[in-house]
Every structure is written in C-alpha cells, then in structure tokens.
Amino acid sequence: MKFTEILTRWYSVNKRDLPWRLTKNPYHIWLSEIIMQQTQIKQGLPYYEAFVTNFPSVFDLANANEQDILKLWQGLGYYSRARNLHASAKYIVNDLNGEFPSTYKTLLKLKGVGDYTASAISSICFKEPHAVVDGNVYRVLARYFGISTPINTTLGIKEFKVLATKLLDTKNPGDYNEAIMEFGAIQCKPKNPDCALCPLNNSCVALQRDKVDNLPVKIKKTKVSNKYFNFLVIISQDKQTVFEKRVSKGIWQNLYQFPLIESTKSLESHEFDQLNLDDTILKDTSIEYSLYNEVDIIHKLSHQHLYTKFWIIEVKKIESSSIPVSEVKNYPTPILISNFIDAFNF
After folding, report:
1. 288 in active site
2. Which of 1, 18, 198, 289 is the most exposed place for a label (fewest CB within 10 A)?
3. pLDDT single digits (tens) 50-68
4. What share of the chain is helix, strand, coil (3-state, %, to 5)?
5. What angle do CA 55, 126, 113 make, to 5 degrees?
6. What pTM was estimated for this model as a whole?
7. Which of 33, 128, 178, 182 is catalytic?
C-alpha cells in the first residue's frame, strides 16, 4: 500500500473531532489555521470557539474594534497574527465585497497568509492541489524518507515542498493534507513517538537507521538576547493608574502596559534611583515606592528573554491622563502584564 493511501486510511480512523473539520467554510478554516499557528490544539481551541462566537462572519470581524480583537487574543502570543486577521477581514469586506478568496493565488494576498496557509485553505475548501508543508509534515517526511537536509534552509524548504507535492493525492488534496498533518501531530510526534504502532514502521528510514530522534534537522539561527524590564505601577490615592498603549511596531504593538523603563541589569530594591524617571510623569513628584518582586519574572520569547520587575509607586495624585485601577483588566495586554494584574489583585 502506498504512503499516501496509508496516511488517508489512518486519518479516517484516528482523526480528532475538531470543530473546523465539520465545515468547509473558508472563513472558519482561515480562523483555525491562523489561530493554530505555533499553538497547540488544546490551547488554541477555546480561542477558535471564542472568535467564531464573537465574530461569526468575516463582516463581524472586519467591523470589530481592534482593541476587542486583541483582548480576545490575549494569552496566545504572536499578536501580529490578530492584527493581520483584522486587516485581512477589512480587505475582504471592503475590496472583495465580502467574498472570501477561493484560490491559492488570491489567498496569498491576505496579510499574514503564506504558502502553508494558502495551500491548506485552497485544498480543504476548494480542492486545489496544493501540498501543505508545516512542522508536522516536515517531521513525517524527514523521518520516513530519511532526509537530513535542514528544514530551515532555502534548499530544505524547496526539497520538502517538491516531495510533498509529489505525494499529494490530487483527487482529495484537502483530506490528504489534513491526514499528514494529523499524523505528525498525534502519531509521528516530536518526542517519544510510538513507532511500534505506526502503520509506516515497515518502511520508515529513520526507524530502520535509528535516527527518529535526530530528524528533522534544523539549524539554530536565533540568538537569544536578555532584556531587563522595569514596569512602573503607579497608584494614586484616588485609585487611578497610568496605562500606556504601545504604538511602536513590535510583538506587543497596540497592547497596553504600565510605563516601562529598561535597565542594563536586574535592579535590586535599593537601586530604584538608577531608573531614569526624567521622561515619566514621576519627574518632580513626591512618591513612595516598593519592589513587588525581588526575583525577576522571566518571560521567554523566541528571540529574547525578558527579566522583569514591577515597581509599585504610590503618589498623591496623577497629573497626566489616567484610568481607574479597576479598569485595567478591560484592556488587551501582554500575558506578562495580565498575569501581574491577576496576581496583584488591584
């Protein structure tokens, strides 16, 4: 039995019961694909259900307030995905009269949609013969065929795409694409796959050569840097605080945070005077402060580790714009800030 046939047969028996598999609605498939990028199913599923409930159509998403979208996305990380969803929904409604793109080429015009997502949507919803290649597919193909070409190189990306296209079931491309991705997710797992029960174990090169744990190969390119964040949690006697919107481009663009000062190292409680307050509302203000956490809260991102401390600063009155402390939970925030808000319990 051929590789492709084995996978599709395995999928028909073992596939998980997921809500987006009950529809061919491209809007729902698009939502699921974007939400599940770099996210485990168990984490992403509640977000998918929340988005479908709050924004049942592309028109609802396009007309939504970005702040509400970011708040609903809070905790998923990679917030550019949410901003891209909103921008693409507006494009579909305003430029395409609400008609969802139905081809691989037109799907690529959506912000945040690349080869993988366009291949997935076009094959699942419109039966276009485009092979998907995601992390699960890389792993299955690398192990089964014994391919050691690094998957994050130009050569590797091309090689795996060509192979995936060659294996594609052109009559049922959507089912096959879902089958190989599901197979990588629950059978050919990154760690400790149960090869004894694998329907491909008789012909898997990696298993025969004892290289299951060594494939796929990925070159480490990202250099992780350390940053030291000091958030100023300013609280006035009338229970007001300062909450700022991050407008500069970056991972937390358009999310809210307490005033931030970066330092060159982690500061101890007696080193508060090393913070430069000249550009904050605390300049020339009588304050009382305390360090909320003596030990850094470490927030790990793909390219940097944030060593974070929260300084609680009490003032008589806040002269600039402020909000009631009771309202901070209503704003979209990075999970780092959200966790502090929950723990501090204003």
Report:
1. no
2. 1
3. 999 999 999 999 999 999 9
4. 45, 15, 40
5. 55
6. 0.88
7. 33
